[in-house]
Amino acid sequence: MSNLKVYKKIRILHTLCRIYSGGVEQRRLVLAKGLPKDQYEHVIITQEASGSLPDKLRAEGWIIHEIGLASHILNPSWHQKAYQIACEYKPDIIHGAVYEGVGLANILGWRLPKAKVISEETSDPTNRSWRGNLLLRLLCFRSSKVIGVSPSVADYLRNTAHIPSNKVKVINNAVLPAPNLILSQLQEYRQSLGLKDTDFVIGSVGRVFDEYKRFSDLICALKILHDQGFVQAKLLIIGSGPDEQMLADLAANLGLAESVIFAGYQSEARHFYPLMNVFALASIRESFGLVLVEAMLAELPVIATKVGGMPFVLNEGKAGILVSPNSPQDFAKAIFSLYQNPLQRQKIAEAGRMRAELEFSAERYCNEIDTLYQSLVNL
To answer: Which end of the chain, N or C, is less surrounded by CB atoms within 10 Å?
Structure first.
């Protein structure tokens, strides 16, 4: 008779709002690639999934269940579909992220008392109503741990949502290593976007929803630069969203139709970072700013607004330049300063890369999540 002990894999049930290409989904891909496959198995319950990322998760052995859109976070039929899947799967841990995913995870947790529950706050909810904060607090009664993806988010959980401090845990975001591209691929991208070797490219990435991401501030900053004679400056916007036409009209009205380039949604935005000279993020709310880390790993000097978790990511201005939100003038000043001083650009880029590799690596993130999972199943 064999004396070998058979170890059961830990079953993780992830509950997410949607699987598209956002930061939450990207972090799940980090886990899919980095957590030991001989120790864990993973299932995701989500409203819907599209794009290339779901296939990447499936390729790593993750199973995805789409249960359809819910009219609200407490929709009974939505929760019943999820419950049936969870009953069959029998998870050891339910890990919910984003407001809807957190709600689903905790309600499932009440119905599956043997499962441990983790909630993950991924946003900078400065505009969340008191009712929303109260509901989050009530939902998280079932959670063993509530993750904040940056110190500012953890502060929100403790001080505004009033989650008990012993439940709150900071686990900083992470990104996978940047993909390597051959020179011919970069040249193809450059030509397809109409970029010249003499252009100074300011890049930005995100969902084109201007109330939040404020790409319009970058367009106005570009106008200031052109008016100062810096006409070789161009703005490259990667992403799609409801405000693309409005921003295109703004660029045209300012005489910048040829200088603002809308690349649309790209399944791998990091392919375009090598085309940029500077990366800028003008958000007025941002829990972390995952694209900042991507840009830092690509050795780009970064300029970002000092809101939410971004000052932390940029080490309070030691690994990038921080400017006031809603200030095209500040962005223009910072961009022109970097253009005039290549040594400063290089110094900031190197500081950003070193911070990203030290604090926001995929290996570090997976180790912290692994430790958390193991601590909960061994309670």
So the answer is: N
Topology agreement, domain 10-174+361-377 and domain 183-359: yes
Query: Which of 293, 331, 329 is CA-nearest to residue 310?
Result: 293
Alpha carbon dihedral 311, 312, 315, 319, in 10-degree steps, equals: -60
- CATH fold group of domain 183-359: Rossmann fold (3.40.50)
- Residue-level pLDDT at 7: 63
- For residue 197, give the 3-state DSSP assignment: coil
Cβ contact 26:365 at 8 Å: no
In the chain, where the domains are located: 10-174+361-377, 183-359
Give pTM, 2 decimals. Answer: 0.85
Residue type, 214: R
Alpha helix segments (H runs only) across the chain: 23-34, 53-59, 76-89, 98-111, 130-139, 151-159, 183-192, 210-213, 215-227, 244-253, 290-297, 310-313, 328-340, 342-359, 362-377
Q: Which residue has the tokens 């926001």?
A: 360
- Strand-pairing partners, residue 94, are 13, 117
238's tokens: 């990667």
Q: Determine contact, residues 288/149, Cβ cutoff 8 Å.
A: yes
Q: What is the pLDDT of residue 74?
A: 82
Among 142, 127, 137, smallest CA distance to 15 is for: 142
Taking alpha carbons only, the member of 341, 342, 310 closest to residue 324 is: 310
Which CATH architecture fits 10-174+361-377?
3-Layer(aba) Sandwich (3.40)
Cα–Cα dist 242/71, whole Å: 21
> DSSP assignment of 265-285, as one string?
--TTGGGGGGG-SEEEE--S-
12 has a pLDDT exceeding 60: yes
How does pLDDT run across 173-196, given as a tens digit for each residue? 898 877 788 888 889 999 999 999
CA distances from 319 to 196, 239, 310 (A): 28, 25, 11
Task: Select the more confidently predicted residue: 307 or 123.
Answer: 307
**332 has a pLDDT exceeding 90:** yes
Encoded tokens for 97: 């992220």
